[in-house]
């Protein structure tokens, strides 16, 4: 057979190997790997955490606001007490300075030394009562304005009794400590207010000498 004819005849030799069969399931497992799933979200835990953060922030804000208001209130009380102290001292000093010497001179001019000695206790008592009344008015104002700290009065019981009577329903806010002195000393927190009875006594003593 010529070579030219042989190419038109079917080759009955060994069969050619067939193409391999591809399993689609196996191929899918390799080509499209399974995507890892996200961990589940704990909604309640997230909610509790958000609440805790909000509560902490609100607590911090309220604490800061309270401390700021408390400082402002304390400063306002301190200023008010200082103003009351200065006003009382100025007014008391002015009254005593203008009246004590005048009264002493009048006593010396109008009566003899013996008579002056007799009426001096009466005048001293009247002046003490007036000083206690003025001090009571100041204390009532301080109590009504909410004075910070306890109010302590040191001095003789006789003067404190006058002060207590003038204070009326506010007397319970004042504590008395007996002291061997002619003056009443009032302690309001860190402030101290003192009457000037000792100055009157010194002036009267000079007049009676």
Question: Top keywords for this entry?
Answer:
about 210 residues; alpha+beta; rod-shaped
Describe it.
The structure is a single chain. This protein is an alpha+beta fold and 209 residues long. It has one domain. 65% of the residues lie in helices and 9% in strands. The chain has six helices and four strands; from the N terminus they run ααααβαβββα. The chain has a four-stranded mixed beta sheet with strand order 2-1-3-4. β1, α5 and β2 form a beta-alpha-beta unit. α3 packs parallel to α6 and α4 packs antiparallel against α6. The protein is rod-shaped, with a radius of gyration of 51 Å. The termini are far apart. Keywords: Hydrolase. This is NTP pyrophosphatase (Non-canonical NTP hydrolase).
Domains (count)? 1
Following the backbone from N to C, one meets helices and strands in this order, namely HHHHEHEEEH
Mean pLDDT: 68
Helix content: 55-70%
Q: How are the strands of the largest sheet arranged?
A: 2-1-3-4
What class would the helix/strand composition place it in?
alpha+beta
Approximate shape: rod-shaped
What is the terminal separation in angstroms?
176 Å
Total DSSP helices: 6
Radius of gyration: 51 Å
Main sheet overview: 4 strands, mixed
Strand content: 5-15%
Structure summary, number of beta strands: 4
Taking pLDDT < 50 over at least 5 consecutive residues as the criterion, the unreliable ranges are none
Quaternary state of the chains: single chain
GO molecular function, one term: hydrolase activity
Organism: Rhizobium aethiopicum
Protein name: NTP pyrophosphatase (Non-canonical NTP hydrolase)
Keywords: Hydrolase
